[in-house]
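Milestone M4 deliverable, item 7.
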Amino acid sequence: MTTSEREADSREADPREAVPPPGGGEPMSERRRSGRLVIRRGAVDKLAEDATLTEDQKLLEPTTRPAFLNTDPWRSLRILSEFVEGFDALAGLGPAISIFGSARVRPGSPAYETARQIGSLLAKEGYTVITGGGPGVMEGANRGCQEAGGMSVGCNIELPHEQSINPYVDLGVEFRYFFARKVMFVKYADGFVILPGGFGTMDELFEALTLIQTGKIRHFPVVLVGSAFFGGLLDWMRATLVAAGTVEAADVDLIQVTDDPAEVVEIIRRAGRRRSTKRSGAASAMDGG
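Output delivered:
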């Protein structure tokens, strides 16, 4: 089997190709993704087989991966590009809420439908919904937002099992690096809504709590949805962390818990009013000075 045949076989087995591109155009079965790049099938082979290339073209179109692409200095430029592209794509979103939860829940499950309802309610309140762009809770939140006419955003991550962007994302940004992606979740959000999930969900929860506790972000509501799921965690925090003096009781009180999607929106709304009041007060103080 030739190299081209092996590449074709591997591309045909790529699960990412099952989702058609939004807006039509060339089907995903004819494309291959790598990070934020989408490569048309056969394009690389065509370059290799094109015997009409000039010497300058051969110099500028290498057929093997240059070693410098794997160096740390080059990675730093790639990281910088992720921040620039993320900032450029998300800067104009307006008020937004980041929603997190398990990628493993199925459509129709309680967590999925709760996320869908929350996404819809937030969209009706004028909020953009930002998720990780994947399946499960993320898909539910994006779906509810899109169905209600809101802006549905997905910040997807390149993973070994190739998580693809769900079909309810209006604006998708793909990342190689978790830390660049996490900056987008915080920078452009006015709050976090966290549904049942695994390690990644817990990572986002504690990331937000750390930033609030250390004063890096202010007036930032963190809402846990699912008292039965999160109750044991909160009990452990109070019984162990507070008792040991590693956190204060007020730190745990930064978290708000509810099972009601409507209450989630009300918590977000109240936090928005407090934030507006603080900003108005600061502006008045500056004008008076």
